[in-house]
Design a protein that fits this description.
This protein is an alpha+beta fold and about 100 residues long. The chain has a domain of about 60 residues. Helix content is about 20%, strand content about 20%. The longest helix has 15 residues. The relative contact order is 0.14.
């Protein structure tokens, strides 16, 4: 049987062994809670290191719980090699576009 997404996240990010459930903490979002896990694999460099898993109160994973480094950036990409007045005009155009 295939592992669920929650079971996958309960595995240590380094050694992939199942971690120990270290309890839950309240979240800043009242509709969620944070499950803390600890690696107990003595051969793992993360031995006795914890990680957190965000859960909804019903125990399901929120769809927005993705690696923030993989999310698209919320700011525009400026052209390279542009400077001075051209750069200021480019920034002003982006600012006006996003603050309409």
């Amino acid at each position: 049987m295939a592992e669920t997404e929650l079971e996958k996240r309960k595995r240590c990010p380094k050694c992939k062994q199942l971690g120990r459930d270290n309890g839950t903490l309240p979240s800043t979002d009242p509709t969620k809670k944070v499950l803390t896990m600890i690696c107990e694999n003595k051969r793992c460099e993360w031995d006795q290191t914890g990680w957190a898993i965000t859960l909804r109160l019903d125990g399901s994973l929120p769809s927005d719980d993705v690696n923030p480094l993989l999310k698209p950036k919320g700011f525009p990409v400026l052209e390279r090699g542009v400077s001075g007045d051209d750069r200021e005009a480019q920034i002003k155009a982006f600012y006006e576009q996003y603050n309409q």
